[in-house]
Design a protein that fits this description.
With 364 residues, the chain is mainly β. It is built from four helices and 16 strands.
Length: 364
């Protein structure tokens, strides 16, 4: 019989599971105070399971994802719902079928927020829980350093494009791990693409008129930001956290009061790589990294959420995968803003950064 793991990690996970289910039910239930529409979606697509910083890991695998979700769309034409272009709140049951994965198949439940960036494109965030059919909790396998508990947390971010009244195309990054409640905890990451069917035809031409895309008087913006980050210890050669620093320059175009598209030039210095380069004798003398990032932002009043995809232009050989992602949340004080973001490589979190920035609107 499989021996149960010691410690309070299981109790913490069960508590998080209960809270997630409660919020998934309670938040949509409060939306009728702002007029709403309810509809369902079913989706199917392909996915690539990434277990490390490289596409060449022997534990990577291809699979298929199946989702069924129930959505509540706010349709009020005044107040917060109108400012945010009638956002939607959803609860989704999902299955990731990966027969060749060392962890087996994934079954999950998560709550979602979907914010329109334009009449044809949505920005989506999700938080939930999942379980695996071959987790190390159920099947003893010392090679499985990815999923070692019965339940894991589930995080996802992506874009949803409306191909017509009844069909959507979704592109998502999904991360699953136990939040370091139990070690080892490398976690798993999924790159997903899929088509969803909405039988109600929510995105019919008549409903698209509800999304009134307003124009911004001064849509062009430049900004500078400075960030201090903590490198996740599993990506260093010894225990503990290392600092990193990021200085960035950005240009953004405000397509509407709630949607922004732009590009960022990142300059960062990672002290964990400094230690590793001394250990390995790396030929790169100064670990200054340069990256270019494309991003989109969704605004909710004074807050905005960012989803970005970048490429490392200049780096030490310790960076095995040049592609990186950034997911962040920020709070704006007129021209100044503060926030927190997660930086990852192929869904594997490398460091968490805390940011202070300054925005300048270009008039004209």
């Amino acid at each position: 019989m499989r021996k149960r793991q010691s410690g309070n990690g299981g109790m913490k996970t069960v508590t998080f599971l209960c809270v997630s289910i409660f919020l998934g039910i309670r938040i949509p239930a409060a939306i009728p105070l702002q007029a709403q529409e309810m509809h369902y979606e079913a989706s199917m697509g392909g996915e690539y399971l990434v277990t490390a910083y490289s596409f060449n890991s022997p534990h990577n695998a291809y699979g298929m994802n199946l989702d069924f979700s129930r959505w509540y769309q706010a349709t009020a034409n005044t107040g917060w719902a109108a400012m945010r272009h009638q956002p939607s709140f959803g609860v989704k049951a999902n299955i990731a079928l990966t027969p060749k994965s060392i962890c087996g198949h994934r079954i999950g439940l998560d709550g979602l927020i979907r914010t329109p960036l334009s009449p044809w494109l949505d920005w989506e965030l999700g938080l939930g829980v999942s379980t695996y059919t071959r987790s190390r909790y159920l099947v003893e396998d010392t090679n499985n350093v990815y999923i070692t508990t019965l339940f894991t947390f589930l995080l996802e971010a992506g874009l949803v494009a409306h191909l017509g009244p009844y069909m959507n195309l979704g592109l998502r990054i999904v991360h699953s791990s136990n939040g370091r409640l139990h070690e080892p905890n490398r976690g798993l990451n999924y790159l997903q693409a899929g088509l969803s069917i909405d039988p109600a035809g929510t995105w019919s031409p008549a409903n698209l008129k509800k999304v009134n895309v307003l124009r911004v008087a001064d849509p062009h913006e430049v900004s500078v930001a400075s960030s201090v980050g903590l490198v996740v210890s599993r990506h260093t050669l010894q225990s503990g956290y290392y600092p990193c620093y990021d200085f960035s320059f950005s240009y953004a175009y405000h397509a509407s009061p709630v949607a922004t598209y732009g590009a960022t030039l990142d300059l960062w210095y990672n002290y964990s790589h400094t230690w590793q380069m001394e250990f390995y004798g790396d030929e790169w003398p100064i670990p200054l990294y340069v990256g270019a990032l494309l991003f989109t932002e969704g605004y909710w009043g004074p807050m905005n959420f960012k989803l970005g995809l970048g490429y490392t232009l200049l780096a030490s050989s310790l960076v095995k995968e040049p592609v990186y992602e950034r997911v962040g949340v920020y709070y704006n004080f007129d021209s100044k803003y503060v926030g927190m973001a997660v930086n990852a490589h192929l869904g594997q979190i490398e460091f968490v950064e805390f940011t202070f920035g300054y925005r300048i609107r270009v008039r004209g």
